Every structure is written in structure tokens, then in C-alpha cells.
Amino acid sequence: MTVRATTRGAERTSLDGTRADVLICGASFAGLAVARELAATGASVLVVDRYEIGERQTSACACPTPWLHAMGVEDSILQDLPHMTFTTPHGSVKYRLPWSWSAFDYRALCDLLWEQCGEARFETAKVEGRGPRTADGDIVVHTDRGDLHAAVVVDALGWRRVLSDPHYQPPEGPLTRALEVHPADDGAGDALDVWVDRSLARRGYGWRVPANAEVRIGVASYDPEQHVKAQVVDLADRLDREPAGYQGNWVPHRLRPAGEDGVWFVGDSAGHCIPLSAEGIRTAFHFGVAAGRGIRSVLAGGRSADAALREYAAFSASHARSFGFALRVQRLIPALPPRLLTLVLRIIGRQALVDRAFGWYLRIADPSFGERANAERAAVAADLPVAA
Ligand SMILES: Cc1cc2nc3c(=O)[nH]c(=O)nc-3n(C[C@H](O)[C@H](O)[C@H](O)COP(=O)(O)OP(=O)(O)OC[C@H]3O[C@@H](n4cnc5c(N)ncnc54)[C@H](O)[C@@H]3O)c2cc1C
Question: Which fold has domain 9-381?
Fold first, then answer.
């Protein structure tokens, strides 16, 4: 039976000295994707987060639909978005994608992931950093509820990369600043809308994600020094919506080492967020699945933790080319004269080119990776040998 605890006030008893085979710090997209891979391994898995699972939405929650099916969380979908529009000051284009986006409900998605995490245990705790290893080689993690010990530790804590030293401190570092609002709306169409308009963000873009009864309207700036609140209000105003329900965060836009001194970094903590779009949910799934498979091979007794972590870090680094290309496009777009950009968007609008461009984009973290991993998880659950 899964144990779920959200502890507040007097309930926040000490966890000092608690030991687990695997400690996963962070219970959002990346952390839950790792924990899901470890179900049925028989290992003790402890997941910690400063908030209850699903309590704090961290994004506009739009993800390629095939990834939501691959992760078994399709019941969290609020609205399917088969189109994208791109608007500049000189015009607008609408593309039909070779795959669709889905806007989903964050809490429902987290609950559906957690249901797949088997015997994993959850505790609310704020992670403060790591300590030296114990005499028997465990990694020590300091939290506000005491020190936790584990043979394998995952940092899925987001952009701050808490278990690394030094941490990232905005506005320095390769970070995108993003903020959005969530006004009620039930008629915002069937497209994920993007604005590339310097009056909104000198280097960045605005978006609107229809999500059934609400719409998520936001602005991202690749320049971390540029504040975006007034621009979000401006975009909401242009769309005739009240800017209600603010939510914002930093998003990394460069890959970082995914293994460091025994710790597995997954999701935003490893910069697993596509620099051009600041899209980091399916990549958190993708690398979470990869890390979970690597950790599973350690738990099965076949591999040393160091060798498995090196292999995972190399897998992450092997994406440097596509992430690097996305970063170059991120820099190129703001440098293009807006009329030329509008022309380029129109040319790409031919269906064959849309299919090609968005096919490449999906393959950066392809849902087939998650589907294949499901077969392995099923084999582990049935106690069958896992195909190499
Ligand atoms: C406004 C905005 C809109 C976005 N929209 C999209 C989108 O539509 N689609 C998309 O793909 N990406 C989007 N992104 C990017 C996406 O949110 C991130 O890439 C994604 O959330 C990364 O997942 P993660 O699990 O690595 O980290 P996070 O989702 O950030 O999760 C980190 C977890 O760690 C916990 N945590 C952090 N610090 C501590 C601590 N010290 N102790 C304990 N727990 C801690 C947090 O509570 C959280 O649960 C958006 C980002 C922003 C800011």
C-alpha cells in the first residue's frame, strides 16, 4: 500500500536518520517519473518534496499528447490542441501539427503518476543540501526534518539544483524567466498560440494554452534580467482577459551535468528543458524514465551505482546537439527582422515542412522511448527477464 503524508505544524515530526535504498528529492514531473520506474523492484523508495504531491502547479501544463499516453496519465487531459498559431506584428500563421499538444490538470497528472509508484513512500520536507557520505557509503541529504540517508539519491528539485554546489542564483546563469496567469475561459480555440513580438519580450515569446474552462496566458524572456509581469498583463489585456492567478518560475536553458558525485540530476536540475520553447515536461519524463531504468539496473544487483550513473550522464549529454541547435534558434529568432521572421513562418507553413520541423522537435525526446520502457516495467512487475 502506498503511504502519502503531508505534514504541517506539529505533524512535522523528525525524520532524522531515515534510510532508504533510493531517495528522490522533488515530486513533480521528473521525480515522479523516476519513482514510477522503480515500482515493483522491492526497493525502499522515499520521495520528498516541500509541498504535497500535485499541490503547486509549476507550468502551463501543455505536453505532447503521446507522452501523456506513454506515462499512463491521459485521464488528466483537459483539452487536446492539434494546432499551433504563431503571431508576429506582421501577421499570423496556423499550423496543423503531425502530433497534438494536450493541456492537462497538474494535480490529476501527479496523482496518476503517484498511483503507479507502487510501494514508494512520500514525506513533506524541504531539502537544504547534501552532507558527506556515511561510513557505509550512503549519501546524506539535509532537510528541515533532519538528515536522510540513501545509497542512491536523485535531485529532481528543479532549476535550483539544490544538491549541487554551487547552486544557480538568478538572474545569473542560463535561465529563462517565465510568468503566466490562468483566467477562466471556455472558448479559446483548439490551438496553442504563440506570439513572437518584441513589444512583449525583446528576446522571448508569449503564449496562450486553452485548457477547457480556463486559459493559461504567459510570457517568457530568455533574458533573465528582463521582468515579464507588465508584459503578461499586456497580453492578457490584448486577449480581453483578466490577469488572474499568477504563477512563475525560472527555467534552465542549457544542459548541465546529469551526474555529480553520486547524485542523479533529472529534469530542470539537469537543464532538461528545451531552450527554444522552455518546454520541460516531456523531457523530465524522458530523462526520468532513463534515470529510473539505470537505478533499477543497480537495484537488480547487476551494476555498480557509479557505472550506471556514468551511463545515464552520458545519455543525457548525448542530447547536447539537439539542445544546442534549439539554443542557437532561440538566439537567432530575436535577431531576425520581424518581417523576415513572418515570411519564414509562412514558408514553413507548408504541411510537409510543418511535419518535418515538428517531427524533429518531437524526436528530441520521443514518446516511443516511454512506450518501450513500459514493456520493461511490465516485465519487472511480472518477474520476467528484462530485454537488454
Ligand atoms: C510559467 C511557466 C510555464 C511553463 N509551461 C510549460 C508547458 O506548458 N509545458 C512544458 O513542457 N514546460 C513548461 N514549463 C517548464 C516546466 O514547468 C519545467 O521544465 C518542468 O516543471 C520541470 O519539471 P521538474 O520535475 O524537473 O521540476 P519542477 O516541476 O520545478 O519540480 C520541482 C519539484 O521540487 C520541489 N522542490 C523545489 N525545491 C525544493 C526543496 N528545496 N525542497 C523540497 N522540494 C523542493 C518543488 O516543490 C517541485 O515539486 C513552464 C515553466 C514556467 C515557469
Answer: FAD/NAD(P)-binding domain (3.50.50)
